[in-house]
Structure prediction request, 165 residues.
Amino acid sequence: MSRWILMWLLVLPVSTAHAGAGAMFGEGHSQFSLVAGNAYAFNQSYFVIGGSASYNVADGFGVGLSLERWSGDGPGITKYAPFMQYVFHQVPVMQPYVGTFYRHTSIEGLPGLKSTGGRAGVMLASGTNAYVSIGMVHEAYLDCQKSIYRVCSETHPDITIIFGF
Prediction:
């Protein structure tokens, strides 16, 4: 499945304190996101809507689950993925992050796909309650049939706008 994704994510963290760089990544804080954007698969354009929720089990270390629904002229696509991410919250201004995920993709009329991947980048504080995350994602499909999907791994940019409340 060949696609080039570039979408905006709005992340609405729920936390009790925002006392400086990285506070929203502290232990006990949660983040919720809404996803809306455009993506490409099967030489078709799709509208993507979804969301995710995560919980920081330790300072900087979060676990969560994401869900996306792709709709358009091609077969319907649904993706869900448990994930883990670590934000180096101790670093002021530009905070590096790394993460990993396991994703299941259901495609109408085709065999489903399982994949693993990783992401890395930096989060830039852009206000008391706002961050911009810029990074890259690499995903490898575990049970991919090149005769159906043509491409069995991909790398794409990951751009996120994060607002804290």
